[in-house]
UniProtKB/TrEMBL annotation:
Keywords: Flavoprotein, FMN, Monooxygenase, Oxidoreductase. This is Nitronate monooxygenase. The lineage of its organism: Bacteria, Bacillati, Actinomycetota, Actinomycetes, Pseudonocardiales. The keyword Oxidoreductase applies. InterPro entries: Aldolase_TIM, NMO. SUPFAM superfamilies: Inosine monophosphate dehydrogenase (IMPDH). The keyword Aminoacyl-tRNA synthetase does not apply. GO terms for molecular function: monooxygenase activity.
Length: 367
């Protein structure tokens, strides 16, 4: 399996793996793909610096990238405390009442989250770019579309291409017009922030719109070699996979709790829901008692980004420590139905490649 994307990024396989775990990202790169580390959880630039330094030492010289969360325009942004003041009291009361109903215990007083994941803020996302460009990253991706023009130029001056996620062909055209180097066409099936159009429809539309100018990666619902073959057949130069790595052995070294793994392993492709409760923008999550509580008639409407994340940040930390898989708060795509066992990243990649080869053999036999 080799496309022009492999030569561009110096990888063996056109598999780009997004993950919030540096252990998983490094393992993807070592397996011949391009591991992309999600930066949004790093509130402190020093923490991200330490994670990328670890990546430098544990990727065997293989390339890797980073993913940031940055709006395309610079918002008026106050302090963390200023933003917290915009959260209505009834929203806070609903969260506390729901956590109590679900039996989720509070954090110790000295471990209170205190205001949300700052990585959702524009200023902190910019600091993530500054830190990343001090390392040998090969790609900077933005989960919220095109980064501001000066950020694109900053990356370009360092020889680092920029990728942006697109949920429509028009989004893709705008990205290219603004100087984005790689478009990730992310379908409705994907975990996290996602649009309204399914991958089978979206991908050829995006390829037809921009594929002659920039490479397109397929994202959303990809977790097998057959699906990679389908993506390449539809015109993609590679795939962007996220959810497929959540049940890898390396993920347990990073963020995963046993309850989270239990919930993911037990879920079917029907056990996800698209909601604004995670960050304020539509995102696909694992369907649990937490998401059901927000869907109840008496639940408040989610707040806009970044206020919703600030509202639920401590709740997510409390839920993550809970031993109950029925209350997990976790972004994941519909491909979760295929995640039925814990396996090392290298084994997952090997199976993807083997199934891809079998798929091509089967198609060739039809000629």
């Amino acid at each position: 399996m080799r496309t022009e994307l492999c030569d561009r990024f110096g990888v063996e396989h056109p598999i780009v793996g997004f993950t919030p775990s540096e252990h998983v990202a490094a393992a993807i790169s070592r397996a011949g793909g391009l591991g992309v580390l999600g930066c949004v959880r790093y509130n402190d630039a020093a923490d991200l610096e330490a994670a990328l330094s670890w990546m430098d030492a544990n990727t065997d010289g293989r390339p890797y990238g980073v993913d940031v969360v940055m709006p395309s325009t610079v918002p008026t942004e106050g302090t963390q405390l200023d933003l917290s003041e915009f959260i209505p009291a009834e929203h806070r009361a609903f969260v506390e009442r729901t956590l109590a109903d679900l039996g989720v215990p509070p954090l110790p007083d000295d471990e209170r989250a205190g205001g949300g994941v700052l990585g959702w803020l524009h200023s902190v996302a910019r600091s993530h770019v500054d830190v990343a460009l001090k390392h040998p990253v090969r790609l900077i991706a933005n989960a919220l579309g095109s980064p501001p023009p000066d950020v694109i130029e900053q990356a370009r001056a360092c020889g680092v291409p920029v990728a942006a996620l697109a949920g429509t062909a028009e989004h893709a055209r705008r990205h290219v017009a603004k100087g984005v180097d790689v478009v990730v066409a992310q379908g409705y099936e994907a975990g996290g922030h996602t649009g309204e159009i399914a991958s089978m429809v979206l991908l050829p539309e995006v390829v037809d719109a921009v594929g002659e100018r920039v490479p397109v990666l397929a994202a959303g619902g990809i977790g097998s070699g057959r699906q990679i073959a389908a993506a390449l057949a539809l015109g993609a130069q590679g795939v962007w996979m996220g959810s497929a790595w959540l049940t890898t052995a390396e993920y347990t070294q990073g963020l995963a709790a046993s309850a989270t793994q239990q919930a993911l392993l037990a879920a079917t492709s029907a056990d996800t829901v698209r909601s604004r409760i995670y960050s304020g923008k539509p995102a696909r999550l694992l369907k649990t008692r937490w998401t059901q509580a927000w869907a109840a008639p008496d639940a408040p409407e989610p707040l806009p980004m970044p206020l919703q994340n600030i509202l639920v940040s401590e709740a997510h930390e409390r839920i993550q420590r809970s031993a109950d898989p029925e209350v997990v708060a976790m972004p994941v795509g519909q491909i979760v139905g295929r995640l039925n066992e814990v396996r090392p990243v290298a084994e997952v990649v090997a199976d993807l490649l083997a199934e891809f080869d079998r798929t091509l053999d089967r198609l060739h036999a039809l000629r």
